[in-house]
Design goal:
inorganic pyrophosphatase (n-terminal core), Diaminopimelate Epimerase, Chain A, domain 1, 5-stranded parallel β-sheet, binds manganese (II) ion
């Protein structure tokens, strides 16, 4: 648990930047919330939760992500108001990036001028804002928005609670990942008290797989590549596989995380061939294997146990280069003498 999240009599001792962010929120009227491309449950839940909280304070708020937004997220309150086209910044509008490690995580084109606030929990955060609240111990951006609401001393409505609970549930893999701690459950309990329905949200997020996505999953599971005695597993989603199932919209959600769940596997990597023929990589690890570092070596970023990279270069040679980087890293990592790590 982060020192900034230490609680005393139900209050968090937040870093000074949180009071500055509260002050900017209280003294301004127009806000644009920005979430990253290919938004996940934490991105959408934290951004929409913040939108609802600010609306309830009487603010004029918009939410932009370039998308695409997976169908199963349409249960989220206010999701229909999401803007997916580049918005014009209004004079005096405050720009709130949430769950974005860097500006490029949104897309390559959107680089707004203005007062930027950066609220995030990625290890690789680039501190690109005028105000930066980066708490890498927070399990989800949704936890930070919950704590922001406490700092603002505003009530959390049922709709906001639904969004923030979804964010936390998604980024902790249903309260299972190593980022899950006491604060996670305290936030979750408070959000349930505010009206979030855990079973309904879990069903919407984890039990809404499309048959086409399951078909892709089946092929991936049957053709896994194991290396380092089963400690490293990888596979790839080539264009043919997407086309077999009907296109990119059926990308299996959480597949890379599920590969990490194989006994003996410490690192799972999933390569995707994009429609342009480029390479997107998902990394998941158990324990001490630092996939944030690996992703950064390949131009991406993320968390200690979950990260990604998007490399705009021809797929096959990029995959091969990435595999060499990963193997070299694992050779060094796995050969570290016992006693210097807790393996
Ligand atoms: Mn997140």
């Amino acid at each position: 648990m982060t020192p900034s999240a230490q609680q005393d009599n139900g209050r968090f001792h937040e870093p000074p930047v949180v009071a500055e962010i509260c002050n900017v929120i209280r003294t301004n009227d127009q806000f644009l919330i920005v979430g990253h491309g290919r938004p996940d449950g934490d991105c959408l839940g934290s951004c929409l939760g913040l939108l609802i909280i600010l609306r309830e304070m009487g603010k004029d708020v918009r939410f932009f992500t370039p998308g695409p937004i997976q169908d199963f997220f349409h249960f989220l309150p206010r999701i229909s108001e999401t803007i997916t086209q580049h918005p014009q910044i209004r004079p005096g509008e405050i720009i709130l990036y949430v769950d974005c490690g860097d500006l490029e995580r949104v897309d390559e084109v959107f680089k707004p001028e203005g007062f930027i606030i950066n609220i995030d929990h990625h290890l690789s955060n680039a501190y690109f804002g005028k105000l930066n609240w980066v708490d890498t111990e927070a399990c989800a951006a949704g936890e930070l928005i919950y704590r922001l609401a406490l700092a603002l001393e505003v009530p959390i409505s049922r709709d906001a609670a639904t969004c923030l609970f979804t964010a936390i549930m998604a980024d902790t893999g249903g309260f299972r990942f190593s980022n899950t701690d006491r604060v996670t459950f305290e936030a979750a309990a408070a959000l349930v008290a505010a009206g979030a329905d855990p079973a309904a949200i879990a069903e919407a997020v984890f039990e809404s797989r499309k048959p086409q996505a399951v078909k892709i999953t089946g092929v991936i599971y049957q053709t896994l590549h194991y290396e380092f005695g089963g400690r490293f597993v990888w596979n790839e989603l080539r264009r043919e596989l997407y086309e077999l199932a009907g296109g990119d919209e059926y990308e299996p959600e959480g597949l890379c995380s599920d590969l990490r769940g194989i006994a003996g596997v410490e690192i799972a990597v999933l390569f995707h061939e994009t429609p342009e023929g480029w390479c997107r990589i998902g990394f998941r690890s158990k324990g001490k294997v630092n996939v944030s570092k690996l992703a950064q070596m390949l131009g991406g970023g993320g968390h200690h146990n979950a990260s990604g990279a998007y490399i705009k270069a021809p797929y096959e040679e990029t995959r091969d280069r990435a595999l060499e980087v990963i193997r070299q890293y694992l050779r060094e990592y796995f050969e570290t003498p016992v006693g210097t790590t807790s393996l």
